[in-house]
Design a protein that fits this description.
InterPro entries: Fructo-/Ketosamine-3-kinase, Kinase-like_dom_sf. Belongs to the fructosamine kinase family. It holds the Pfam family Fructosamin_kin. With 284 residues, this protein is of the alpha+beta class. It is 43% helix and 18% strand. A hairpin with a 6-residue loop joins strand 1 and strand 2.
């Protein structure tokens, strides 16, 4: 940590105070304070999660270039051997969002999702939390979701003996049906880890987006994750639906779209989330 602070001194930020921040399960986080400014620093192991924070920074930059969301400014990023990687961001002061803020946020997500590509995937693999997610580009969502999301996670859970071979078979059966479950749409640029912990209502009447797991995917993935853990006002979903209506029967597809983040949480936290995974797979 001292080595990181020595590097940051070169930026001439006048840092006087370092305050550890609790609540992060993934990174060690700190608020750095100077005479008149605050900064956010996150730190992790370079060896355990190679390029985790560089990939995050590239995701933030890609989101910023769409001119749809506010993202924190990237002030510095680096590595110190295999021990540390760090990312320094501007500090975001938060506030309580209004209904209008939520409506604008819903419309902004709709705008983000209208950034499309020819193929599903991304130009590099990246992370959701600390789990590396493959982003090999494919022509169909069903192929991408099966081979880059569902089955790799099923194998990881099976290796930890959290699920059975019968449940793996159920997942394989589900993947064979994905082409008829999801409507055909162009690949949309999505945040990828769109839960309420990764959105900050800022003091400008807007939302700042953090911790992306960005790729071109099916846009219902962001909506499904927003609904999985709650914390989003109904005005957000109503505004999104008005701006960019989801195809019919989207509620019926919700558990299938929520399966991937549940697999991630089952892998990271085990317990309760494994039961959710098993419930969804029983149907197949």
């Amino acid at each position: 940590m001292n080595e990181i602070l020595e590097r940051l001194k070169q930026l001439d930020l006048g840092i006087e105070t370092i305050v550890p921040i609790k609540g992060g399960d993934i990174n060690d986080a700190f608020r750095l304070e100077s005479f008149d400014k605050k900064y956010f620093l996150k730190v992790n192991s370079s060896a355990n999660f190679p390029n985790l924070l560089k990939k995050e920074a590239r995701g933030l930059d890609a989101l910023n270039k769409t001119n749809t969301f506010s993202t924190p400014k990237i002030l510095n990023i680096g590595e110190i051997g295999k021990d540390f990687q760090y990312l320094l961001l501007e500090w975001i002061e938060t506030s309580t969002p209004t209904i209008i803020d939520w409506e604008n946020f819903g419309r902004n997500l709709a705008k983000l999702h209208q950034n499309t590509a020819k193929q599903f995937g991304w130009n590099e693999d990246n992370y959701m939390a600390i789990v590396l997610q493959p982003n090999k580009q494919t022509d169909s969502w069903s192929e991408f979701y099966a081979n880059n999301r569902i089955m790799p996670m099923m194998k990881l859970l099976q290796n930890k003996q959290l699920i059975t071979s019968k449940q793996v078979k159920s997942a394989e059966n589900m993947c064979k049906q994905l082409g008829s479950i999801f409507p055909k749409e162009k690949p949309s640029l999505i945040h990828g880890d769109f839960w309420n912990g990764n959105i900050l209502a800022n003091q400008e009447g807007d939302f700042t987006i953090i911790d992306p797991a960005i790729y071109y995917g099916h846009r219902e993935m962001d909506i499904a994750l927003a609904k999985l853990f709650g914390g989003f006002d109904d005005a957000f979903f109503d505004a999104y639906q008005e701006a960019f209506p989801l195809e019919k029967n989207s509620e019926e597809r919700l558990p299938i779209a929520q399966l991937f983040p549940l697999l991630i949480h089952a892998y990271l936290f085990e317990g309760y989330y494994v039961k959710d995974v098993q419930t969804i797979l029983k149907k197949f």
